[in-house]
Amino acid sequence: MSGRKGLRFLMLAVAGSVLCALGAVVPTAQAASTAPPATATGALVSVGSPTGNHPQNAQNEPALAVDPTAPNILAAGANDLVDMQPCSQKASTTAGACSFPLGTFNLGVGLTGVYFSFNSGHSWVQPTYQGLTAVGCDPTVEPCTPHPGPIHTVPNFFENGLRSRSDPGVAFGPVPKNGTFSYSNGSRLYFATLATNLTDTKIQRGGINSNFAITVSHIDNLTPARVASQSNWSAPVFVPAHIASAAGLDKEQVWADNAATSHFFGNVYVCYSDFHSLSRGHNFALFPSVAVSSDGGLTWTPHHVAPATTAAPQGFRQGGHAQRRHRQRRPHRCGRHERARGCVERRPERPESRGGPAVVLDERRPNLVPAGDGVPARRPGALLRAGHRP
Q1: Which of 25, 95, 157, 313 has the most crowded Cβ, counting Cβ within 10 A?
Q2: C-beta neighbour count of 86 within 10 angstroms
Q3: 273-296: buried (b, 16+ CB within 10 Å) or exposed (e) per residue?
Q4: Taking the model in full, what pTM does it have?
Q5: 3-state SS class at 230
Q6: Shared domain check, 215 and 120
Q7: Which residues contact 198 (CB under 8 A, 6 or more apart)?
Q8: Which residue segment(s) compose the domain that 241 sits in?
Q9: Are 10 and 78 a contacting pair, CB within 8 Å?
Q10: Pair (108, 227) in one structural domain
């Protein structure tokens, strides 16, 4: 969530019968030759946010899911600051921020909104639950102390000593009953988000020993009445159940196998990146990972799905796919006369056949970490930030 480019109202739309984002318009079927031009409509999704107060009117990173058994039912999630205090006068005038301590977004306050539509996206509801809120804080008084009260973010985190933090994901799947998945049992919405404890310090419970964790909550058989009641939501479940102190889980997304013909029908999958290191930037191993649940999101089994990549010379993976950070450079050897003019020799340190992009070595600057085209050299110890959070 940190480093995001501008927060804005969560307003998404569709055109014709193609669901592009969150709005929806499906014109009456007509012959192609006589069909009028398609029109587009938009619908405000974050309806619980005050339109004139910052940062409470700020959202980003939306996620959307459609119930396959009832396509008129939609669920969405987004990073949402609706439960934060009005922008602090002191923070805004002295630090260009909205809350103290800087970067905490009011400790303990949930930051992940949840929204529902029951008419194919034409209108939305953002339920009111109970939790920890800073909405009532006076912007001229510091510090702001959040208190229990009405919230418009995903529920049952404060009650479990947690706060929803960022990177939401949503997916529908069948409800399990007596060990069997079937849509005749109903439809289940899975809601994934990063989470911290109420003070943004290390979570130390069970097998969790990290500042950040991934959680998945669920709610079954969505109706306006059911989503309005907090008791219909499960408590958040840690994914995975054991997290090392060196782990940095991020970029999670959730999906459920909703094909009844699949051998894995009903399984739920959370893919995520584990930025696994305590090296202070000298080596930043990233493990692409997937956790699997076969019991409706109650327990999870993690798997590393590819070898870890480490540091800039080998590129990096993020969100489950590989990215190249450097273009291959052909070797260049300086001749005797070129050396006299200050020629710089370049050679690949790691052959392409070994799976890593070429690295440029500048022999005139041996104190710098090698850099590729368009990538500035870094001094040893500088942190390669492949991903970061609020």
Answers
A1: 157
A2: 20
A3: bbbbbeeeeeebbbbbbbbbbbeb
A4: 0.72
A5: helix
A6: yes
A7: 107, 108, 132, 158, 161, 162, 163
A8: 11-27+40-323
A9: yes
A10: yes
Across the strands, what pairs with 304?
289
The type of residue at 314 is Q
- For each successive 10 residues of the chain (390 residues), what is the average pLDDT? 41 33 37 62 91 89 97 97 92 87 90 97 97 94 92 98 96 96 97 95 88 96 98 96 85 94 96 80 78 97 84 47 39 49 47 35 32 34 32
How many separate domains does the chain show? 2
Pairing mode of beta strands 162-177, 147-151: unpaired
- Helix, coil or strand: residue 227: helix
Q: In this structure, are 256 and 160 located in the same domain?
A: yes
Give the strand order in the sheet containing 285-293.
249-256, 268-276, 285-293, 301-304
Residue type, 40: A
Q: Are 352 and 358 in contact (CB under 8 A)?
A: yes
CA dihedral 322, 325, 329, 335 (to 10 degrees): -140
Element at 169 (helix H, strand E): strand 162-177
CB 106, CB 99: distance < 8 Å? yes
Written as one string, the DSSP assignment of 371-388 is B-TT---B-TT----S--
